[in-house]
Amino acid sequence: MSIKYKLYYDELMKHKDAINRENPIDLEVMYADVKEWKPTRSLVSTEPVEGWDEAVLVGPFGNSVEGEKVFLKVVEELSPEDED
Amino acid sequence: MDLRDFLNILKERGELVEINEEVDWDLEMSAISAMTQRLRGPALLFNKIKGMNPGYRAVSEHYAGTLRKPFRRIAICMGIEPDDKNWFEGTQEIAKKMTNVIKPVQVATGPCKEVIKMGKDVNAFEFPITYGGLGDCGRYLNCQTTICKDPDSDWTNWGNYATLVSKRNRMVTSASTSSDFYALLHTKYAPRGESMPVAIVVGGDPLNGLLGGTPLPSGVSEADVAGGMRGAPVELVKCETSDILVPANSEIVFEGEVRAGETALEGPKTECFGFTVGPRTPAPVIRIHCVTHRKDPIVPILSQVTYGMSSIESIQMSMFAAGLNFVMAQSKIPIKQMMAATVKWGGYSNLMATRNWYPGFIRDMFDAGLMFPATNAYYDVSDMVDDDVNIYHVEEIVDAIYTQSNPAKDWVPSSACWDARTSGGLVSVRSYLEREDLAKLYGKMTVTTGYWTRDNTTKGEPPLGVRRMSFETVLPDEIQQWVVDNWKKWGLEEEPAWNKPYLDLPPLGM
Q: Measured between CB atoms, does B166 come within 8 Å of chain A?
């Protein structure tokens, strides 16, 4: 499975009570292919879930800034792309 | 000179290598650049980039120095010949050129207009903008010129601010709250309820990128200085969606606007200060309405991954130093020479040689010279030394610190707290800030939390009249002559350095 998203640890922790729950949360994620941030409504799990995507957490993890993984399902991309 | 002319000269002189194998903008270009930087190697032109249109290229380390010729690429960029000057000679040349100004001229069109895209066709991700390091919050343009204009005068500001590409038509600037960008936005446009037109220029004359990062006083248009340095007016074209004028020979121009109060989270990112700057903090959004570019654009990159004689440090050693001297020449402070240290960008030392020392000199110098936003935003430590100390030799500086100054008396601390023009993002942070300090500063002012000025000048008459230990001061003349006369006979190739005068100059402000 390849990494589809990046999440910042500090920011995910603002929603830590919602992890592994059934209610999606408003979460901005970075799409790893293009490195674009998008606001989403997503479900987050610490364990693999069939059909969900892998996200890497960015934070202080020993000698690396990328470490732990979580599993994410984007239920909805919020707000259309901003018009000019 | 445009970027392509510059790169051709670099190649002719063996300073550039073209990489024709496909590389990825996602970390790979940054990694290759970091390695060449570590090796003090050539500039790199990436001719084939994954996912990019054919002909879309990137270049890195085009300003960097090598051990033998630390100033060479900057010299080539400036048109300074011969190109093998040392830093002192080179900085003097640059400072001299900066005293001339030639106003730019407006032309009808230019190479930057070969392709024009508006609205829905704008996509910043179609260009090879790098993702530089793990932990970066996105792809950054870090070798670009952000142009904004004073609506009440003909002052146009060029600034170099690392800029996040957050969406296809949105960027987020990391301009410091002490920058002219912020000053214009919040003192001229916001009070009038107007958005500020902005152009982000990539490529063009390589001198332009250097000037954007040079600490020139507010009100000075970098285009005027660029013309003076080139000896010919810069040719500018009008943007498609605003009245901003941009260099006609640019590679890419992103045209947009900033609406006061519209922010998005920016950071963290690997920064030239030597660490990953974070956490994510609110910073101004630039809405991109139009992009114009050459058919086969080249995106210049400034790798910020390692330390050493990289492009960043080379820029600091040359333009910053020249800019500092330009600023100090306006004052009456008898400083002979100022420079910014080569060790690390972010100005952990700001070195100067002086004479006519008097009590309180440090404070006067600090107040007059280093409280300019452009300088104080960067420098945490300033070292003052006698005028016979070569401030381009780190060893001589260290020697002066440890032999001529008493930390209890001669190291003067100051907490410089910037009265930010707006409550904006936290920028210009320092690696030594604790998390609790960062939390206090989040969303508030930019603060430089510690500032040291060290007086490493000779205070009294030293014993035996010898101020400094050197070949010339502690060895008899006849022995010195004997060494010089026999140097080559002993199989040693380098010319011996003997009695090299240094800084035979009048003080800047006198």
A: yes
Distance from CA of A50 to the nearest CA of B (A): 27
- Residues of chain B positioned with their CB less than 8 A from the CB of A36: 125, 138, 166-168
The ipTM estimated for the assembled molecules is 0.89
Most trustworthy range by pLDDT among A53-62, B21-30, B305-314, B320-329: B21-30
Spatial contact of B25 and B19, defined as CB atoms under 8 Å apart: no
CB spacing of B280 vs A8 below 8 angstroms: yes
The closest CB to that of B289, out of A28, A37, A84, belongs to: A84
**Interface size between A and B, measured as CB pairs under 8 A:** 46
Q: In whole angstroms, what separates CA B43 from the centre of its chain?
A: 18
- Rounded Cα gap, residues B427 and B421, in angstroms: 13
Tokens of B410: 């001669």
Which residue does chain A place closest to B288, by CA atoms? A84
Residue closest to B397 by CA, chosen among B351, B343, B366, B348? B351
Residue A28's Cβ-count burial label (10 Å; 0-12, 13-18, 19+) is middle
- Interchain pair A30, B137: CB under 8 A: yes
The answer to whether the CB of B9 falls within 8 A of the CB of B76 is yes
Sign of CA dihedral B171, B312, B147, B292: negative
Q: What number of CA atoms fall less than 13 Å from residue B99's CA on the CB side? A: 11
Interface probe for A, chosen from B29, B167, B195, B240 (most Cβ of A below 10 Å), is B167
For the stretch A27-84, pLDDT in tens is 889 999 999 999 999 999 999 999 999 999 887 776 677 778 899 999 999 876 565 5
Question: What are B257-295's pLDDT values in tens digits?
Answer: 999 889 988 878 776 655 565 667 788 999 999 999 999
Burial of B240 (0-12, 13-18, 19+ CB in 10 A): middle
C-alpha span between B95 and B75 (Å, rounded):
13
On chain A, the residues whose CB falls within 8 A of the CB of B267 are: none
Kindly report which listed range (A12-16, B230-234, B238-242, B394-398) carries the lowest average pLDDT score: B394-398
Query: How many angstroms separate the CA atoms of B271 and B305, rounded?
Result: 7
Using a CB–CB cutoff of 8 Å, tell me whether B127 touches chain A. Answer: no
